[in-house]
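This part of the workshop introduces the protein records we will be handling. A learned vocabulary of local backbone shapes supplies the integers on the structure line. Getting from the letters to the tokens is the skill we practise here. As an example, a complete record with its sequence and its structure tokens follows.
=====
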Amino acid sequence: MRVIIAGGGTGGHVIPALAIARQLKKQFSAEVLFIGTARGIETRLVPQAGFPLELIQVGALKNVSLMTRVKTMFDLPRAIAASSRMITDFDPEVVIGVGGYASGPAMVAAIRRHLPTLAFEPNVVPGFANRMIARWVSAAAVHFEETCRYFPHCRVTGVPVREAFFNIPAADRATTGGIPTLLVFGGSQGARAINQAMIESLPGLSAKIPGVHVIHQTGQRDYDRVLAAYQRSGISGEVHKFIDDMPATFGRADLLVCRSGASTVAEIAAAGKPAIFVPFPAAADDHQNVNARALERAGAAVVVEESNLGAAYLVDTIAALIGDGGRLRSMSSAAQSLAHPKAVEEIAEMVLGLTRNGRETGDIRPTELSS
């Protein structure tokens, strides 16, 4: 089996893509080629994982300046042509688009060649690249049932998540001396708005939740000032620039405060952890807010808009949840109901089905994009 995986830019695109690649290699001895751009995190993570990476030049069309959009429009034909040459050289049986800058051109090139294609979409609302090619892809693997309205051939598989997140026991205060524990993080780079809100909230948390313990991942740039704030407050806290073993840290927490990117949402569902989501307001198509609201509707989370992230409101929200064991257990069960422990296996099965279908029919694609 030969497969191209196209896309990237952020960890939310690249990390699930690597999980898919590893599963295809493990299960089918697949040869996998990645297509990305020089500006994405794939330039570091894909070679580290041992997969070959080819680069095309293309930028963004959404939420950017007019000059950037014009440049991208000029880059697109060249990016599609470059992707087509890579497809010719590698001769894949399936092309998978995971979203991000490189996904659109490579998927268009594959569709125009009548190759089987699979769109992977972890957000409720597909990103721009996946929306543009949604009607023409052979199949789509998604995280949320609502997303299927965008794709004619859709299956809810969930997002590939490390197995360790599924093996986290429920937080048990009986083993921690009854100490309520809060985990705060904003992704690998941290989230300045969340960091600042927590600094301002420390006195209120100390007063309203005596003995509370906070584990806080700040990212590099805010680490010193957040650490100093905890030291001044006297609150029990662990402040980290980064947390390497996030599943183990999840296991220690009663409640999480975090952003709501697709990978984070999937990890929270896998771990069955109650969460307060603070969506990143500048995310493309407001996808973090839409993701967070999906879990809130299911009873698994509470959403606090960044515009409402004042200290008093945040303290009241945390105190109301962390002091209500029954609600935390209910939220945990709701989160687990949204988990997909076999996501990567199901996606691999879809890829296998597309390769078989392609071999049997020789041409399963519509022709609208071939002109």
Summary: The chain is about 45% helix and 15% strand. The first strand starts at residue 2 and ends at 6.
